[in-house]
Amino acid sequence: MLPVELKMKPLLLPLLLVLAMNPIACSRSTADPVDAPSPDAATQPEGVEVLNDAGQAIAVFAGGCFWCTEAVFERVKGVESVVSGYAGGNDDDANYQLVSAGATDHAEVIQITYDPQAVTYGELLKVFFTVAHDPTQLNRQGPDTGRQYRSAVFYLNDAQKQATAAYIQQLQDAGTFAEPIVTTLEPLTKFHPAEQYHQDYVRLNPAQPYVVYNALPKVKKLEKQLPEYVETGIE
Could you tell me the residue range of the domain that residue 86 belongs to? Predict the structure, then answer.
């Protein structure tokens, strides 16, 4: 039987040979520093911090493989937890086999709970757009292709939708990216937590080749490019 990490990514073994020869090509969002504007007041409209029953603020982002985005946001100050999962599909059921096959139109997402006194929704957007993934890649992220790997913000209310649109406009006005941003804004209708073996995957599997070539460079990029956003004391 194959190790679980090799069973989870189709065609992973041939891909690893390519990544070993050209690791930067696998994840364009980690190749070059991005001089992005800081979120302005338009990214913090009234009501943008949506609270759960425990009084924690919630954000849901899709930016390719959830192993990678989870690893980045677990290092961001003020983030209290990150859960990998699925959202945006046209089926009430979602699991890795269905989603990875593109059968339900769900995306791999992360649900972030955070302390808005320590980090704002706008600051999370900055991390998402400039470090956690490449928002100019359409229906793919690095080596992963398909709508399940699309760039999307799943907004919980109109204020989050407004804030995200405002920050995208900031990025476009600043000429941050050479190519157009293709991130979609989609209402969150339901969040499906992913299987337990996907949770904290990078932290638990730091030597796994996919992690080494795709996730860890993004964490390093966060540390180098946005050190003021990094929670200290986390290994």
Answer: 49-222
Greater confidence, 25 or 223? 223
Residue 25 lies in a domain: no
pLDDT at 162 over 70: yes
Token pair recorded at residue 43:
């990214």
Measured distance between the N- and C-terminal CA atoms of the chain, rounded to whole angstroms: 31
101: domain CATH number is 3.30.1060.10
- 187: which strand partners? 155
Q: Please tell me the distance from the alpha carbon of residue 125 to that of residue 131, in angstroms, as a whole number.
A: 10
Active site positions, annotated: 65
Q: Taking all residues of the chain, what is their mean pLDDT, rounded to a whole number? A: 88
Whether residue 97 has pLDDT greater than 90: yes
CB 137 within 8 A of CB 65: no
- Cα–Cα distances (Å) from 13 to 17, 158, 205, in that order, read 7, 43, 17
- Give, as one character, the DSSP assignment of residue 131: I
In this prediction, residues 46-71 reach a mean pLDDT of 96
112 belongs to a structural domain = yes
Predicted confidence (pLDDT) per residue in 135-149, tens digit: 999 999 999 999 999
d(CA 154, CA 149): 14
Q: Which residue has the tokens 């269905």?
A: 98
pTM here is 0.87
- Cα Rg for the chain, rounded, in angstroms? 17
